[in-house]
Every structure is written in C-alpha cells, then in structure tokens.
Amino acid sequence: MSILHAISFSVAHSAPIVRGSLIMKHYLDAAQKAARAAGDLLRQNFQQPLRVNSAHAHDIKLEIDVHTQELITKLLLEEFPGHALYGEEGIVGDQSSDKKARLQS
Q: Structure pTM?
C-alpha cells in the first residue's frame, strides 16, 4: 500500500501586500520546507508495515500520519509561533490568534 500525502497550507488571514510579496514568500518557503521534511519521513517509512493508531467507521488514523503532521506542525510553529494550525490529526498553536492555517492531507 502506498501513502500519498499532499499538504495544503492556506493562510486564513490577509497579509499586507508588499512589493514582491515577501510575506507570502515567507509562508511558501516555510510550507515547502515542512512538505519536504514530511516527504522525507514518508519515504523513510515507505513499504514498512502500517501501524494503525485508531480505527473508526469512516476514519483510520495511521501512526505515520500522526508523526508526519507532528513534524509539519513543529516546523511551521517554529517559524510562526503565534499562529494556529488546524490539521486532520489535531489542532495546535495559539487558538486565539487571527492567523490560522489548515493542514490538509
């Protein structure tokens, strides 16, 4: 079984427009760094036995998915400590922040 993981990093607040969009480039750079690190983790675990953390009627939570999201959120929160991140495996960061991002896998 192969695991395909796509990361969607969408910022739910409006960033000031700056010539060259430096602020959005910072978001993009951080998202790409996190995506590459997650891809490395997934490649290291490719074709390894899948370990299920929990299984419900319409949801299977794999250990590798949890580890991947933890890695992504760690890297993004290091770069943007005042942001809130909403992911499939949980919510982290400053939930009172007006700067929110959704991680989608």
A: 0.66
